[in-house]
Protein backbone atom coordinates (compact mmCIF):
# COMPACT_ATOMS: atom_id res chain seq x y z
CA UNK A 1 0.00 0.00 0.00
CA UNK A 2 2.79 2.32 0.95
CA UNK A 3 4.70 1.29 -2.14
CA UNK A 4 1.65 2.01 -4.18
CA UNK A 5 1.13 5.51 -2.89
CA UNK A 6 4.72 6.48 -3.47
CA UNK A 7 4.42 5.08 -6.97
CA UNK A 8 1.33 7.20 -7.45
CA UNK A 9 3.20 10.16 -6.17
CA UNK A 10 5.98 9.68 -8.68
CA UNK A 11 3.54 9.18 -11.50
CA UNK A 12 1.50 12.15 -10.46
CA UNK A 13 4.59 14.32 -10.40
CA UNK A 14 5.56 13.09 -13.83
CA UNK A 15 2.03 13.60 -15.05
CA UNK A 16 1.92 17.17 -13.78
CA UNK A 17 5.29 17.87 -15.26
CA UNK A 18 4.18 16.64 -18.65
CA UNK A 19 0.94 18.54 -18.46
CA UNK A 20 2.80 21.67 -17.54
CA UNK A 21 5.36 21.55 -20.26
CA UNK A 22 3.53 19.86 -23.07
CA UNK A 23 -0.10 20.70 -22.86
CA UNK A 24 0.15 24.40 -22.56
CA UNK A 25 0.29 26.81 -25.41
CA UNK A 26 2.44 29.81 -24.92
CA UNK A 27 3.22 32.59 -27.34
CA UNK A 28 6.66 32.31 -28.91
CA UNK A 29 9.02 35.24 -29.00
CA UNK A 30 8.25 37.72 -31.72
CA UNK A 31 9.22 41.19 -32.82
CA UNK A 32 7.79 43.90 -35.06
CA UNK A 33 4.35 43.05 -33.66
CA UNK A 34 1.70 45.43 -32.36
CA UNK A 35 0.76 45.85 -28.70
CA UNK A 36 -2.49 47.71 -28.16
CA UNK A 37 -4.15 48.55 -24.88
CA UNK A 38 -7.96 48.51 -24.96
CA UNK A 39 -10.24 48.07 -21.94
CA UNK A 40 -7.51 46.81 -19.62
CA UNK A 41 -6.32 44.26 -22.10
CA UNK A 42 -2.98 44.40 -23.83
CA UNK A 43 -3.53 42.82 -27.25
CA UNK A 44 -0.55 41.29 -29.06
CA UNK A 45 -0.83 40.67 -32.79
CA UNK A 46 1.47 39.83 -35.69
CA UNK A 47 5.22 40.08 -35.92
CA UNK A 48 8.12 37.91 -36.98
CA UNK A 49 10.25 35.29 -35.30
CA UNK A 50 13.39 36.35 -37.15
CA UNK A 51 15.10 34.90 -40.20
CA UNK A 52 15.03 31.14 -40.40
CA UNK A 53 16.71 29.29 -43.24
CA UNK A 54 17.22 32.52 -45.08
CA UNK A 55 13.63 33.57 -45.04
CA UNK A 56 11.60 35.57 -42.63
CA UNK A 57 9.55 33.53 -40.20
CA UNK A 58 6.25 35.34 -39.92
CA UNK A 59 4.18 34.69 -36.85
CA UNK A 60 0.91 33.10 -37.90
CA UNK A 61 -2.51 34.15 -36.77
CA UNK A 62 -1.61 34.33 -33.06
CA UNK A 63 -3.81 36.84 -31.32
CA UNK A 64 -3.82 37.02 -27.55
CA UNK A 65 -3.96 39.46 -24.69
CA UNK A 66 -2.81 40.05 -21.18
CA UNK A 67 -5.45 41.11 -18.69
CA UNK A 68 -4.01 44.13 -16.90
CA UNK A 69 -7.00 44.67 -14.60
CA UNK A 70 -5.53 42.09 -12.27
CA UNK A 71 -2.10 41.74 -10.66
CA UNK A 72 0.39 39.49 -12.40
CA UNK A 73 3.99 38.46 -12.24
CA UNK A 74 6.06 38.62 -15.41
CA UNK A 75 7.39 35.16 -14.63
CA UNK A 76 3.92 33.74 -14.69
CA UNK A 77 1.93 35.46 -17.39
CA UNK A 78 -1.68 34.55 -18.02
CA UNK A 79 -2.08 35.00 -21.75
CA UNK A 80 -5.60 34.68 -23.09
CA UNK A 81 -5.62 33.17 -26.52
CA UNK A 82 -8.22 34.57 -28.91
CA UNK A 83 -6.55 33.46 -32.14
CA UNK A 84 -9.78 31.76 -33.12
CA UNK A 85 -11.39 35.15 -33.79
CA UNK A 86 -8.44 36.48 -35.78
CA UNK A 87 -9.14 37.21 -39.44
CA UNK A 88 -6.16 39.48 -40.09
CA UNK A 89 -3.61 38.03 -42.53
CA UNK A 90 -0.11 37.26 -41.25
CA UNK A 91 1.83 40.48 -41.10
CA UNK A 92 4.57 42.42 -39.33
CA UNK A 93 5.79 46.02 -39.09
CA UNK A 94 2.21 47.25 -38.67
CA UNK A 95 1.10 49.99 -36.32
CA UNK A 96 -1.96 50.26 -34.14
CA UNK A 97 -3.87 52.66 -31.91
CA UNK A 98 -6.96 52.70 -29.77
CA UNK A 99 -9.62 55.00 -31.23
CA UNK A 100 -13.02 55.04 -32.86
CA UNK A 101 -16.30 56.73 -31.90
CA UNK A 102 -16.36 55.13 -28.45
CA UNK A 103 -12.61 55.32 -28.04
CA UNK A 104 -12.40 51.59 -27.55
CA UNK A 105 -11.73 50.21 -31.00
CA UNK A 106 -8.35 48.86 -31.97
CA UNK A 107 -7.18 50.23 -35.36
CA UNK A 108 -4.50 48.36 -37.24
CA UNK A 109 -2.72 49.94 -40.19
CA UNK A 110 -0.33 48.19 -42.48
CA UNK A 111 0.42 49.18 -45.98
CA UNK A 112 2.90 46.88 -47.61
CA UNK A 113 2.38 43.36 -48.72
CA UNK A 114 2.89 40.51 -46.36
CA UNK A 115 5.32 37.89 -47.50
CA UNK A 116 2.82 35.79 -49.41
CA UNK A 117 2.04 38.78 -51.59
CA UNK A 118 -1.57 38.86 -50.51
CA UNK A 119 -2.48 42.51 -50.47
CA UNK A 120 -4.01 43.02 -47.09
CA UNK A 121 -6.51 45.84 -46.68
CA UNK A 122 -4.92 49.01 -45.33
CA UNK A 123 -6.93 49.14 -42.13
CA UNK A 124 -8.52 46.59 -39.85
CA UNK A 125 -10.50 47.34 -36.72
CA UNK A 126 -11.06 45.10 -33.74
CA UNK A 127 -14.06 45.56 -31.49
CA UNK A 128 -13.34 44.05 -28.05
CA UNK A 129 -17.06 44.13 -27.19
CA UNK A 130 -18.02 41.74 -29.95
CA UNK A 131 -14.52 40.22 -30.19
CA UNK A 132 -14.52 40.65 -33.93
CA UNK A 133 -12.40 42.14 -36.69
CA UNK A 134 -13.84 44.35 -39.42
CA UNK A 135 -12.42 45.91 -42.56
CA UNK A 136 -13.85 49.41 -42.22
CA UNK A 137 -15.02 51.44 -45.20
CA UNK A 138 -13.01 54.61 -45.17
CA UNK A 139 -13.93 57.63 -47.25
CA UNK A 140 -11.39 59.70 -49.13
CA UNK A 141 -8.66 58.57 -51.43
CA UNK A 142 -5.77 56.75 -50.00
CA UNK A 143 -3.68 54.26 -51.80
CA UNK A 144 -0.53 54.89 -49.83
CA UNK A 145 0.76 51.70 -48.26
CA UNK A 146 3.45 52.16 -45.66
CA UNK A 147 5.10 50.06 -42.98
CA UNK A 148 7.63 50.39 -40.15
CA UNK A 149 6.03 53.58 -38.93
CA UNK A 150 4.46 54.67 -35.67
CA UNK A 151 0.78 55.63 -35.71
CA UNK A 152 -0.21 58.22 -33.11
CA UNK A 153 -3.79 58.96 -32.05
CA UNK A 154 -4.73 62.42 -30.81
CA UNK A 155 -7.54 63.42 -28.48
CA UNK A 156 -9.93 63.95 -31.38
CA UNK A 157 -9.60 60.40 -32.61
CA UNK A 158 -7.26 61.20 -35.51
CA UNK A 159 -4.51 58.76 -36.27
CA UNK A 160 -1.32 60.30 -37.65
CA UNK A 161 0.68 58.07 -39.96
CA UNK A 162 3.87 59.92 -40.74
CA UNK A 163 6.85 58.60 -42.70
CA UNK A 164 7.54 54.92 -43.06
CA UNK A 165 8.55 52.83 -46.01
CA UNK A 166 7.08 50.74 -48.76
CA UNK A 167 9.48 47.88 -48.56
CA UNK A 168 12.65 49.11 -50.23
CA UNK A 169 15.28 51.63 -49.24
CA UNK A 170 14.36 54.01 -52.02
CA UNK A 171 10.69 54.09 -51.14
CA UNK A 172 10.93 55.66 -47.71
CA UNK A 173 8.64 58.66 -47.37
CA UNK A 174 8.02 61.63 -45.11
CA UNK A 175 4.39 62.35 -45.85
CA UNK A 176 1.71 62.76 -43.20
CA UNK A 177 -1.33 60.58 -43.66
CA UNK A 178 -4.24 61.18 -41.29
CA UNK A 179 -6.98 58.67 -40.56
CA UNK A 180 -9.99 60.04 -38.73
CA UNK A 181 -11.01 57.03 -36.65
CA UNK A 182 -14.33 58.59 -35.67
CA UNK A 183 -15.86 59.51 -39.03
CA UNK A 184 -13.65 57.05 -40.90
CA UNK A 185 -12.08 59.31 -43.48
CA UNK A 186 -8.60 59.74 -44.91
CA UNK A 187 -6.83 63.07 -44.87
CA UNK A 188 -3.37 64.45 -45.40
CA UNK A 189 -1.20 66.67 -43.27
CA UNK A 190 1.67 68.93 -44.19
CA UNK A 191 5.14 67.66 -44.94
CA UNK A 192 6.62 71.15 -45.21
CA UNK A 193 9.53 71.20 -42.81
CA UNK A 194 9.03 67.54 -41.97
CA UNK A 195 12.07 65.42 -41.12
CA UNK A 196 13.73 63.42 -43.90
CA UNK A 197 12.12 60.07 -44.82
CA UNK A 198 12.69 57.37 -42.21
CA UNK A 199 11.39 54.19 -40.63
CA UNK A 200 11.50 52.70 -37.13
CA UNK A 201 11.52 56.06 -35.37
CA UNK A 202 9.92 56.88 -32.01
CA UNK A 203 6.82 59.08 -31.74
CA UNK A 204 4.74 60.35 -28.84
CA UNK A 205 1.82 62.75 -28.46
CA UNK A 206 2.67 65.45 -25.94
CA UNK A 207 0.03 67.20 -23.80
CA UNK A 208 0.47 70.35 -25.95
CA UNK A 209 -0.96 68.31 -28.86
CA UNK A 210 2.36 68.18 -30.65
CA UNK A 211 3.76 64.88 -31.73
CA UNK A 212 7.47 64.45 -31.08
CA UNK A 213 9.46 62.32 -33.55
CA UNK A 214 12.79 60.83 -32.48
CA UNK A 215 15.58 58.91 -34.28
CA UNK A 216 14.94 56.11 -36.76
CA UNK A 217 16.84 54.93 -39.79
CA UNK A 218 17.05 55.74 -43.47
CA UNK A 219 16.83 52.22 -44.89
CA UNK A 220 15.73 48.69 -44.14
CA UNK A 221 19.16 47.11 -44.16
CA UNK A 222 19.96 46.33 -40.53
CA UNK A 223 23.72 46.23 -40.80
CA UNK A 224 24.49 49.50 -42.41
CA UNK A 225 25.31 52.98 -41.30
CA UNK A 226 21.74 54.14 -41.71
CA UNK A 227 20.85 54.96 -38.14
CA UNK A 228 19.77 58.51 -37.45
CA UNK A 229 20.99 60.84 -34.74
CA UNK A 230 18.82 61.78 -31.80
CA UNK A 231 20.32 65.18 -30.96
CA UNK A 232 17.57 66.74 -33.04
CA UNK A 233 13.89 65.95 -32.57
CA UNK A 234 10.92 67.01 -34.67
CA UNK A 235 7.56 68.36 -33.56
CA UNK A 236 4.35 68.13 -35.53
CA UNK A 237 1.66 70.45 -34.26
CA UNK A 238 -1.66 68.64 -34.70
CA UNK A 239 -3.64 71.89 -34.25
CA UNK A 240 -1.64 73.92 -36.74
CA UNK A 241 -0.64 71.13 -39.11
CA UNK A 242 2.93 72.41 -39.01
CA UNK A 243 6.43 71.08 -38.35
CA UNK A 244 9.31 72.41 -36.32
CA UNK A 245 12.77 71.14 -35.45
CA UNK A 246 14.08 71.17 -31.92
CA UNK A 247 17.67 70.58 -30.92
CA UNK A 248 18.31 68.75 -27.70
CA UNK A 249 21.15 68.83 -25.20
CA UNK A 250 22.46 66.88 -22.24
CA UNK A 251 23.30 63.21 -22.32
CA UNK A 252 22.02 62.54 -25.84
CA UNK A 253 21.58 58.82 -26.58
CA UNK A 254 23.72 57.39 -29.37
CA UNK A 255 22.02 57.06 -32.76
CA UNK A 256 19.41 54.33 -32.66
CA UNK A 257 16.24 53.00 -34.23
CA UNK A 258 13.58 50.43 -33.36
CA UNK A 259 13.51 51.52 -29.72
CA UNK A 260 10.32 52.24 -27.81
CA UNK A 261 9.31 55.54 -26.31
CA UNK A 262 6.51 56.56 -23.99
CA UNK A 263 5.32 59.68 -22.21
CA UNK A 264 6.11 59.65 -18.48
CA UNK A 265 3.34 59.95 -15.92
CA UNK A 266 4.02 63.68 -15.44
CA UNK A 267 3.25 64.32 -19.12
CA UNK A 268 6.62 66.03 -19.43
CA UNK A 269 9.24 63.32 -19.70
CA UNK A 270 9.74 61.11 -22.70
CA UNK A 271 11.21 57.74 -21.74
CA UNK A 272 13.15 55.85 -24.40
CA UNK A 273 14.11 52.19 -24.12
CA UNK A 274 16.25 49.91 -26.26
CA UNK A 275 16.98 50.23 -29.93
CA UNK A 276 19.60 49.16 -32.41
CA UNK A 277 22.61 50.58 -34.19
CA UNK A 278 24.83 48.38 -36.32
CA UNK A 279 27.84 50.47 -35.37
CA UNK A 280 27.37 50.73 -31.63
CA UNK A 281 26.48 47.93 -29.26
CA UNK A 282 23.74 49.15 -27.00
CA UNK A 283 24.32 47.60 -23.61
CA UNK A 284 21.53 47.12 -21.04
CA UNK A 285 22.94 49.98 -19.01
CA UNK A 286 22.81 52.19 -22.11
CA UNK A 287 19.26 51.27 -23.01
CA UNK A 288 17.25 53.77 -20.98
CA UNK A 289 17.15 57.54 -21.52
CA UNK A 290 14.81 60.35 -20.59
CA UNK A 291 14.10 63.57 -22.50
CA UNK A 292 12.68 66.36 -20.40
CA UNK A 293 10.44 68.19 -22.86
CA UNK A 294 10.38 71.35 -20.74
CA UNK A 295 14.09 71.87 -21.44
CA UNK A 296 14.72 69.34 -24.24
CA UNK A 297 17.53 67.95 -22.20
CA UNK A 298 18.38 64.25 -22.23
CA UNK A 299 19.54 62.40 -19.14
CA UNK A 300 20.19 58.85 -18.02
CA UNK A 301 17.65 58.07 -15.31
CA UNK A 302 18.57 56.43 -12.04
CA UNK A 303 17.19 52.92 -12.20
CA UNK A 304 17.13 49.95 -9.84
CA UNK A 305 16.29 46.31 -10.43
CA UNK A 306 17.75 44.05 -13.07
CA UNK A 307 17.65 44.19 -16.83
CA UNK A 308 19.47 41.33 -18.54
CA UNK A 309 19.45 42.53 -22.13
CA UNK A 310 18.73 45.42 -24.37
CA UNK A 311 15.87 44.89 -26.83
CA UNK A 312 14.76 46.22 -30.15
CA UNK A 313 11.76 45.70 -32.43
CA UNK A 314 9.72 45.54 -29.21
CA UNK A 315 6.72 47.66 -28.20
CA UNK A 316 5.96 49.66 -25.07
CA UNK A 317 2.73 50.88 -23.48
CA UNK A 318 2.15 52.87 -20.32
CA UNK A 319 -0.23 50.93 -18.08
CA UNK A 320 -0.85 52.36 -14.63
CA UNK A 321 2.52 53.28 -13.20
CA UNK A 322 4.49 50.99 -15.50
CA UNK A 323 6.17 51.20 -18.84
CA UNK A 324 5.19 47.76 -20.13
CA UNK A 325 7.65 46.45 -22.69
CA UNK A 326 6.47 43.54 -24.80
CA UNK A 327 8.46 40.99 -26.78
CA UNK A 328 11.09 42.27 -29.27
CA UNK A 329 14.42 40.72 -30.06
CA UNK A 330 17.83 40.24 -28.51
CA UNK A 331 16.70 38.70 -25.24
CA UNK A 332 16.74 35.06 -24.22
CA UNK A 333 13.16 33.99 -23.48
CA UNK A 334 14.42 31.22 -21.21
CA UNK A 335 16.02 33.84 -19.00
CA UNK A 336 13.84 36.88 -19.33
CA UNK A 337 10.11 37.29 -19.62
CA UNK A 338 8.50 38.45 -22.85
CA UNK A 339 7.17 41.28 -20.72
CA UNK A 340 9.37 43.79 -18.88
CA UNK A 341 7.94 46.18 -16.32
CA UNK A 342 9.57 49.49 -15.54
CA UNK A 343 7.96 51.23 -12.60
CA UNK A 344 8.09 54.90 -13.66
CA UNK A 345 6.08 56.34 -10.76
CA UNK A 346 9.12 57.95 -9.15
CA UNK A 347 11.10 60.23 -11.46
CA UNK A 348 14.07 60.09 -9.10
CA UNK A 349 14.41 56.37 -9.50
CA UNK A 350 12.75 54.03 -11.96
CA UNK A 351 12.59 50.36 -11.09
CA UNK A 352 12.64 47.15 -13.12
CA UNK A 353 10.09 44.96 -11.38
CA UNK A 354 8.35 41.64 -11.92
CA UNK A 355 5.08 42.28 -10.12
CA UNK A 356 2.34 44.27 -11.77
CA UNK A 357 -0.27 45.98 -9.61
CA UNK A 358 -3.24 47.16 -11.66
CA UNK A 359 -4.20 50.81 -11.51
CA UNK A 360 -7.35 51.55 -9.54
CA UNK A 361 -10.36 51.16 -11.86
CA UNK A 362 -11.13 54.39 -13.66
CA UNK A 363 -14.73 55.29 -14.38
CA UNK A 364 -14.32 55.15 -18.15
CA UNK A 365 -17.57 54.31 -19.91
CA UNK A 366 -16.08 51.60 -22.07
CA UNK A 367 -14.51 49.66 -19.23
CA UNK A 368 -17.90 49.29 -17.58
CA UNK A 369 -19.35 47.37 -20.46
CA UNK A 370 -18.87 43.67 -19.82
CA UNK A 371 -17.06 41.98 -22.65
CA UNK A 372 -17.74 38.60 -24.04
CA UNK A 373 -14.10 37.86 -24.55
CA UNK A 374 -13.84 35.71 -21.47
CA UNK A 375 -16.20 33.26 -23.06
CA UNK A 376 -14.10 32.71 -26.12
CA UNK A 377 -10.71 32.96 -24.52
CA UNK A 378 -8.59 30.28 -23.00
CA UNK A 379 -6.35 31.13 -20.11
CA UNK A 380 -2.79 30.08 -20.72
CA UNK A 381 -0.84 29.86 -17.55
CA UNK A 382 2.85 29.90 -18.13
CA UNK A 383 5.71 30.06 -15.72
CA UNK A 384 8.44 31.94 -17.52
CA UNK A 385 11.11 29.59 -16.29
CA UNK A 386 9.62 27.01 -18.57
CA UNK A 387 8.52 29.42 -21.24
CA UNK A 388 11.06 28.33 -23.81
CA UNK A 389 10.20 24.70 -23.65
CA UNK A 390 6.52 25.39 -23.17
CA UNK A 391 6.56 27.70 -26.12
CA UNK A 392 8.49 25.52 -28.42
CA UNK A 393 7.24 22.18 -27.32
CA UNK A 394 3.74 23.51 -26.95
CA UNK A 395 3.84 24.98 -30.42
CA UNK A 396 5.52 22.03 -31.98
CA UNK A 397 3.41 19.32 -30.55
CA UNK A 398 -0.22 19.19 -31.25
CA UNK A 399 -2.63 18.24 -28.57
CA UNK A 400 -2.86 14.79 -30.12
CA UNK A 401 0.71 13.95 -29.17
CA UNK A 402 0.01 15.47 -25.84
CA UNK A 403 -3.09 13.37 -25.48
CA UNK A 404 -1.19 10.26 -26.54
CA UNK A 405 1.40 10.92 -23.88
CA UNK A 406 -1.27 11.36 -21.29
CA UNK A 407 -2.90 8.15 -22.42
CA UNK A 408 0.42 6.38 -22.00
CA UNK A 409 0.76 7.77 -18.52
CA UNK A 410 -2.79 6.86 -17.62
CA UNK A 411 -2.15 3.38 -18.88
CA UNK A 412 1.01 3.19 -16.82
CA UNK A 413 -0.93 4.32 -13.81
CA UNK A 414 -3.51 1.66 -14.48
CA UNK A 415 -0.91 -1.06 -14.82
CA UNK A 416 0.75 0.14 -11.70
CA UNK A 417 -2.41 -0.06 -9.77
CA UNK A 418 -3.33 -3.46 -11.10
CA UNK A 419 -0.01 -5.04 -10.44
CA UNK A 420 0.56 -4.98 -6.72
CA UNK A 421 4.07 -6.43 -6.87
CA UNK A 422 6.91 -4.22 -5.88
CA UNK A 423 9.01 -2.75 -8.62
CA UNK A 424 11.01 0.18 -7.34
CA UNK A 425 13.14 0.54 -10.42
CA UNK A 426 10.61 0.10 -13.16
CA UNK A 427 9.83 3.78 -13.38
CA UNK A 428 12.49 6.44 -13.35
CA UNK A 429 12.13 8.65 -10.35
CA UNK A 430 13.47 12.13 -9.96
CA UNK A 431 16.83 11.87 -8.30
CA UNK A 432 18.03 8.64 -9.76
CA UNK A 433 20.09 8.58 -12.88
CA UNK A 434 17.30 7.62 -15.18
CA UNK A 435 14.97 10.10 -13.61
CA UNK A 436 17.30 12.89 -14.52
CA UNK A 437 16.36 12.43 -18.12
CA UNK A 438 13.06 13.89 -17.17
CA UNK A 439 14.69 16.97 -15.83
CA UNK A 440 13.55 20.22 -17.44
CA UNK A 441 17.05 20.99 -18.57
CA UNK A 442 17.11 18.11 -20.98
CA UNK A 443 14.13 19.48 -22.78
CA UNK A 444 15.52 22.94 -23.12
CA UNK A 445 16.94 23.91 -26.44
CA UNK A 446 20.53 25.09 -26.56
CA UNK A 447 21.00 28.71 -25.59
CA UNK A 448 21.00 31.34 -28.26
CA UNK A 449 24.38 32.99 -28.11
CA UNK A 450 23.05 35.63 -30.31
CA UNK A 451 21.34 37.33 -27.43
CA UNK A 452 24.72 38.03 -26.02
CA UNK A 453 25.24 41.73 -26.28
CA UNK A 454 28.77 41.50 -27.59
CA UNK A 455 27.85 39.28 -30.46
CA UNK A 456 25.88 41.49 -32.75
CA UNK A 457 28.30 40.96 -35.59
CA UNK A 458 27.61 37.25 -35.46
CA UNK A 459 24.04 37.67 -36.53
CA UNK A 460 23.28 36.22 -39.87
CA UNK A 461 21.64 38.58 -42.22
CA UNK A 462 19.35 37.81 -45.04
CA UNK A 463 16.73 39.66 -46.95
CA UNK A 464 13.18 38.55 -47.27
CA UNK A 465 11.44 38.87 -50.58
CA UNK A 466 11.22 42.62 -50.27
CA UNK A 467 14.81 42.35 -51.24
CA UNK A 468 15.75 44.78 -48.56
CA UNK A 469 14.21 44.09 -45.23
CA UNK A 470 16.64 42.48 -42.88
CA UNK A 471 15.75 40.84 -39.66
CA UNK A 472 18.52 39.42 -37.49
CA UNK A 473 18.56 35.73 -37.16
CA UNK A 474 18.76 34.14 -33.78
CA UNK A 475 21.37 31.45 -33.36
CA UNK A 476 18.89 28.64 -33.05
CA UNK A 477 15.83 29.26 -35.04
CA UNK A 478 12.35 28.61 -33.82
CA UNK A 479 11.84 25.94 -36.39
CA UNK A 480 15.08 24.26 -35.48
CA UNK A 481 13.96 24.43 -31.90
CA UNK A 482 10.83 22.67 -32.83
CA UNK A 483 12.91 19.89 -34.32
CA UNK A 484 15.04 19.70 -31.23
CA UNK A 485 12.15 19.62 -28.88
CA UNK A 486 10.43 17.14 -31.10
CA UNK A 487 13.31 14.73 -30.78
CA UNK A 488 13.52 15.42 -27.06
CA UNK A 489 9.88 14.54 -26.82
CA UNK A 490 10.35 11.51 -29.00
CA UNK A 491 13.05 10.36 -26.60
CA UNK A 492 10.75 10.89 -23.68
CA UNK A 493 8.01 8.97 -25.40
CA UNK A 494 10.37 6.13 -26.21
CA UNK A 495 11.46 5.96 -22.62
CA UNK A 496 7.93 5.80 -21.40
CA UNK A 497 7.13 3.09 -23.92
CA UNK A 498 10.20 1.18 -22.88
CA UNK A 499 9.19 1.41 -19.27
CA UNK A 500 5.80 0.23 -20.28
CA UNK A 501 7.31 -2.73 -22.09
CA UNK A 502 9.36 -3.61 -19.04
CA UNK A 503 6.23 -3.35 -17.04
CA UNK A 504 4.51 -5.83 -19.32
CA UNK A 505 7.41 -8.28 -19.28
CA UNK A 506 7.67 -8.22 -15.52
CA UNK A 507 3.98 -8.53 -15.16
CA UNK A 508 3.56 -11.47 -17.51
CA UNK A 509 6.63 -13.10 -15.95
CA UNK A 510 5.09 -12.82 -12.57
CA UNK A 511 1.82 -14.17 -13.79
CA UNK A 512 3.59 -17.14 -15.35
CA UNK A 513 5.44 -17.79 -12.12
CA UNK A 514 2.21 -17.77 -10.26
CA UNK A 515 0.74 -20.45 -12.44
C1 LIG B 1 -9.36 57.99 -25.55
O1 LIG B 1 -8.86 57.45 -24.34
C2 LIG B 1 -7.58 57.93 -23.98
C3 LIG B 1 -7.17 57.24 -22.70
O2 LIG B 1 -7.11 55.87 -22.88
C4 LIG B 1 -7.60 59.41 -23.81
O3 LIG B 1 -6.31 59.87 -23.52
C5 LIG B 1 -8.09 60.07 -25.09
O4 LIG B 1 -8.21 61.43 -24.90
C6 LIG B 1 -9.43 59.51 -25.48
N1 LIG B 1 -9.79 60.02 -26.77
C7 LIG B 1 -11.00 60.52 -27.03
C8 LIG B 1 -11.23 60.96 -28.44
O5 LIG B 1 -11.85 60.62 -26.17
C1 LIG C 1 -14.58 63.74 -41.12
O1 LIG C 1 -13.97 64.77 -40.37
C2 LIG C 1 -13.09 65.60 -41.12
C3 LIG C 1 -12.50 66.59 -40.17
O2 LIG C 1 -12.12 65.99 -38.98
C4 LIG C 1 -13.82 66.28 -42.25
O3 LIG C 1 -12.90 67.03 -43.01
C5 LIG C 1 -14.47 65.24 -43.10
O4 LIG C 1 -15.26 65.88 -44.08
C6 LIG C 1 -15.35 64.32 -42.29
N1 LIG C 1 -15.81 63.28 -43.15
C7 LIG C 1 -17.05 62.79 -43.08
C8 LIG C 1 -17.38 61.69 -44.04
O5 LIG C 1 -17.87 63.18 -42.27
C1 LIG D 1 28.71 50.59 -39.61
O1 LIG D 1 28.53 49.21 -39.71
C2 LIG D 1 28.40 48.76 -41.02
C3 LIG D 1 28.10 47.28 -40.98
O2 LIG D 1 28.62 46.68 -39.87
C4 LIG D 1 29.67 49.07 -41.81
O3 LIG D 1 29.51 48.66 -43.14
C5 LIG D 1 29.92 50.56 -41.75
O4 LIG D 1 31.14 50.88 -42.38
C6 LIG D 1 29.97 51.03 -40.33
N1 LIG D 1 30.12 52.46 -40.30
C7 LIG D 1 30.89 53.06 -39.45
C8 LIG D 1 30.89 54.54 -39.50
O5 LIG D 1 31.58 52.48 -38.66
C1 LIG E 1 27.60 57.12 -40.71
O1 LIG E 1 26.50 57.94 -40.46
C2 LIG E 1 26.81 59.09 -39.73
C3 LIG E 1 25.52 59.81 -39.42
O2 LIG E 1 24.47 59.36 -40.19
C4 LIG E 1 27.75 59.99 -40.52
O3 LIG E 1 28.09 61.11 -39.78
C5 LIG E 1 28.98 59.20 -40.85
O4 LIG E 1 29.82 59.95 -41.69
C6 LIG E 1 28.61 57.89 -41.54
N1 LIG E 1 29.82 57.11 -41.73
C7 LIG E 1 30.09 56.47 -42.85
C8 LIG E 1 31.35 55.69 -42.88
O5 LIG E 1 29.35 56.50 -43.81
TrEMBL record:
Signal peptide location: 1-23
Residue numbers spanned by region Disordered: 353-384
Membrane-traversing stretches: 392-414
InterPro entries documented for this protein: Kelch-typ_b-propeller
Biased composition (Low complexity): 365-384
The UniProt record lists the keyword Metal-binding: no
Entry keyword set: Kelch repeat, Membrane, Repeat, Signal, Transmembrane, Transmembrane helix
Protein name: Galactose oxidase
Gene source species: Rhizophagus irregularis
Amino acid sequence: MLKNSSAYFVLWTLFQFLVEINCQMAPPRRDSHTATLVDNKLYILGGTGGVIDESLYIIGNDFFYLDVSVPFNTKRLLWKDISSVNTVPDHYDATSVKGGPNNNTFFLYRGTKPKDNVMMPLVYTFDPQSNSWTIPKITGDNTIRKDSLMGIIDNNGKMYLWGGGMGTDDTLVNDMLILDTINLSWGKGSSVGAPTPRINYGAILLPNRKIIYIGGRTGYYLFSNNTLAINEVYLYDTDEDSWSTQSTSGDVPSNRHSFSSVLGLDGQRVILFGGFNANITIAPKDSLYVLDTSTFEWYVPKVSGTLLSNRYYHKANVIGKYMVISFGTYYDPSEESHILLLDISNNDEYKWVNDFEPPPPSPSPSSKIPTSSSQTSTPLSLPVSSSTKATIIGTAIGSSVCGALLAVICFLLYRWNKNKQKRENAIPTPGNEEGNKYNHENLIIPKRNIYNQGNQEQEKITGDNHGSEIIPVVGTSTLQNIDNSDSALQQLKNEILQTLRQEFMQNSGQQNNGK
